Fold this sequence. Notes:
The protein is mostly helical.
Amino acid sequence: MRLPSQTTVPARSGTQRSAIAEGILDAAERLAQTRGFNGFSYADIAAQLSVTKASLHYHFPSKADLGHALIERYSRVFAQALAAIDAHTEDAGEKLKRYVRLYDDVMSSERMCLCGMLAAEYATLPVAMQDELRSFFDANERWLTDVLEEGRRAGRLTFRESARKRAQAVLGALEGAMLVARAYGDVRRFRSTAAQVLADLGVERPRAAHA
């Protein structure tokens, strides 16, 4: 399952963002996922889209505004992906395998989880972006906590600590494994860690979406 990267979300004015604004977000997202937020400028986006920097500032007055919109959109799309998992199956083990595939698909497209990438730059981000970043991870931890609790009650998953503590460990392991795998240019490192995370819960190794 590939995490959707393009969606239309409400702009600050309450109207729908224009196709140009969405294109800017798409380009910025790709750059942030491959270079980091501090690794690109408006000039890089303008060059990719063949537009002027003035047009970028028209839609996103500052890079902080752009960054906030990026996290907001990514969080919303990720939440939609989690809802789709919930709608597809009630089995906790299957939900976790599909959750892992969200990350695997992003890595297989030679990108990083946007929020995981930004977390590495947390200290340099504007406060509004820091708040949105924490909200993304909080939402993931809540979803994982619910799945883990359901799985333990059903006898599907096994772990000793609280569901919340294990949810934090799962999220941290997957995000961290992405960073290490990126350093080596080897997605197999991520898959190995992900398989161990699932095995520790009593879930068999998931089939990779990409060979």
